[in-house]
Amino acid sequence: MSYILQGETGEWEVVVGLEVHAQVISNAKLFSGSSTEFGAEPNHQVSLVDAAMPGMLPVINEHCVEQAVKTGLGLKAKINLHSVFERKNYFYADLPQGYQISQFLYPIVGEGKVVLDLEGGKSAEIGIERLHMEQDAGKSMHDQDPRRTFIDLNRSGVCLMEIVSKPDIRSPEEAGAYVRKIRTILRYLETCDGNMEQGSMRADVNVSVRHPGEEMRTRAEVKNVNSVRFIMQVIEVEAARQVDVWESGGEVVQETRLFDPNRNETRSMRAKEFAHDYRYFPDPDLLPLDLAPEYVDTIAATLPELPDEKKERFISEFGLGPYDAGVLVGEKRNAEYFERVMQGGPTDKPGGKKGQRDAKAAVNWVTTNLFGALNAAGKDIADSPISADQLGELLDLMADDTISGRIAKDVFDVMFETGRNAGDIVEEKGLKQITDTGAIEAAVDEAIAGNPEQADEVRGGNDKAIGWFVGQVMKATGGKANPQMVNQLLRKKLMG
Ligand code: MN
């Protein structure tokens, strides 16, 4: 759905295109053998190539090419067998070469698409314009000295994929969903770790506004936005600013702007450069990149099941709703955990598949109980104290009525704290559900005898009072009585 701003001259809609810069997972840089590991001392991962010493020549890292092709395939995009590295010339202190090696006229990946899962089960398709490979620049550090700026070249030469969307995005929500989806796909592919705090993914946000139905107006580009929340915020404040400019008789100029999250505003950084300002030309030190079709096929054969397909499979194989399926596939490890919980276990329930646990129970316990506990403990699923098999055992104990759902919650808490198995905890604490009719009957009789007034109410037809009695019996048995049996016995004795 469009995001509409109400102005004095009518309604305005926002048009957004995103350029996502994603750092390729690779041990070495794009054109040198230096390490790319995060967190090293400044200037400790800089080869002579990265520092642009005279006479140094770039040598392409094949792994980076493979990663870019893999990403293109994951974005359902066209792989261009012929691509060319060009020099994008500009001067900046953290760019020792005086140019960035990038791809311009002939990128390695062409048009593709990404499907967004939006609220209320809606979806939207966003076009990918292209993906090209390029080097990252170094980093200027302005906060180390009161008078000088320091330069750290560790990032210099690291391989980035710039993923350019078509201007198909119409709201902050869509932009957020788009970036999250790209991140999920790249993480499934293991081509980028998607770690936005460490700068592995950041976006340039192109924003313009127009009255619905109008041609596109001039856009402004907000550079280097490094979180999903900020990307969404940028669109809101930049769109509002542009509406103000247009409505007060001014004109939005094509320029590069910076986002200041503290003041929640964007500020002009410099007039926008156009492609011709960069004097692009093919890098004479690098041959065009020509890929054999078989090479691409080999990479295609290594592609994992991607989130959209996994989601479809979870829906058809386990009967999950689109929402639950979407939540689970958002992180590959969550999906794998869930699938492991589904495996095995005796499902005697009607309609249950052999060797497959009850999906509804599994979804609930994974997304509500487990994710809730992990969240509260600040833990990742990889460090979950309860393994998928252990959670599966807990589900089995409920499925065969060894314990009630209420007791299961207590057992779960102990499991989460100690990492012990459900069966052992139930055994040790004597939590087995009472299904012995005699024992339950005794507890029911006692409850009725002790509460004659409430018993009369039930006899008088007050169905709610039955629930109250069930509660009493459950309390008396420490939650161990089988609630269905308690209910049946109460009805038989009181309502005959
Ligand atoms: Mn770029």
What this model shows, in words?
By secondary structure, the chain is an alpha+beta fold. The chain has three domains: 4-300, no CATH class; 307-429, no CATH class; 437-495, Arc Repressor Mutant, subunit A. The protein has helices spanning 62-74, 172-189, 228-247, 293-300, 307-318, 322-329, 332-342, 359-377, 388-399, 405-418, 422-429, 437-450, 452-459, 464-476, 483-495; strands spanning 4-7, 10-23, 82-83, 85-89, 99-103, 112-117, 123-135, 139-141, 150-152, 159-165, 201-210, 220-225, 255-260, 265-271, 281-282, 289-290. A hairpin with a 5-residue loop joins β6 and β7 (123-135). α2 (172-189) packs antiparallel against α3 (228-247) and α13 runs antiparallel to α14 (464-476). Manganese (II) ion binds next to loops.
Give the key terms:
alpha+beta, three-stranded antiparallel β-sheet, 39% helix, 3 domains, Arc Repressor Mutant, subunit A, 15 helices, 496 residues, nine-stranded mixed β-sheet, single chain, binds manganese (II) ion
pLDDT averaged residue by residue:
93
Provide the β-strand percentage band.
15-25%
Poorly predicted regions: none
Small molecules bound = manganese (II) ion
Work out the number of β strands. Answer: 16
Bulk shape: elongated
State the end-to-end distance. 57 Å
| Domains, number | 3
Number of helices: 15
Radius of gyration: 30 Å
Q: What structural class is derived from the secondary structure elements?
A: alpha+beta
